[in-house]
Write a structure and sequence with these properties.
Elements: H1 10-105, E1 121-123, E2 129-131, E3 137-139, H2 146-153, H3 157-163, E4 177-179
Antiparallel strand pairs: 1-2, 3-4
């Protein structure tokens, strides 16, 4: 099939055919590019939407992290304050115990001349009366403390301590003999 354009020679006709072929190929390539470009635009829009979603989520995580950090700081601050309060209470209890230990370690302040001749009561410097030694003795058994002994015998712990200034209540041993009121 040999087509010729009117009034032209064969070589110029070939050129026309080549030009038309190139134009057709260009049009097809343009169509393909447009189709691909539309797909790329859709892909870019989808990517942009995913990127914005990730940025939003990252912002939420950052906000949550800041809130968690604030809560943790508040917890630590409150814990430190509570521990400080406990420390102060323990220090006060230690001071009070030392003061009581010093009182207990001090020999009886009641002079011997103030003790009753009958041996049952003595007059203290403040005008009150305190029990005097009865001559009875209690031998300490395993697990006993001054407090337990006073409770069991229904006597005052203060009297028991006063009558036994030589005994350290914290270091009392089994077999120790205690004077009783």
């Amino acid at each position: 099939m040999d087509m010729q354009l009117e009034g032209g020679d064969r070589s110029s006709n070939t050129m026309v055919y080549v030009a038309v072929g190139v134009a057709v190929v260009g049009v097809i390539a343009g169509i393909i590019g447009a189709v691909r470009g539309a797909g790329a635009a859709r892909d870019a829009a989808a990517f942009d939407a995913r990127l914005k979603d990730l940025e939003r989520r990252l912002g939420e995580v950052a906000t949550g992290s800041e809130q968690l950090t604030t809560q943790m700081n508040n917890f630590v601050r409150n814990a430190n304050q509570t521990l400080g309060d406990f420390g102060q209470r323990i220090a006060k209890a230690e001071r009070d115990l030392r003061a009581l230990d010093e009182k207990l370690a001090t020999p009886s302040s009641v002079p011997a001349s103030a003790r009753s001749a009958a041996g049952t009561t003595t007059t203290t410097g403040s005008g009150g009366t305190a029990a005097a030694p009865s001559g009875k003795v209690h031998e300490v058994k395993a697990g006993e403390t001054m407090e337990k002994i006073a409770r069991q015998l229904n006597i005052s712990l203060a009297d028991l301590l006063r009558l036994n200034p030589q005994v350290d209540p914290k270091r009392m041993k089994v077999g120790t003999k205690l004077n009783l009121p």
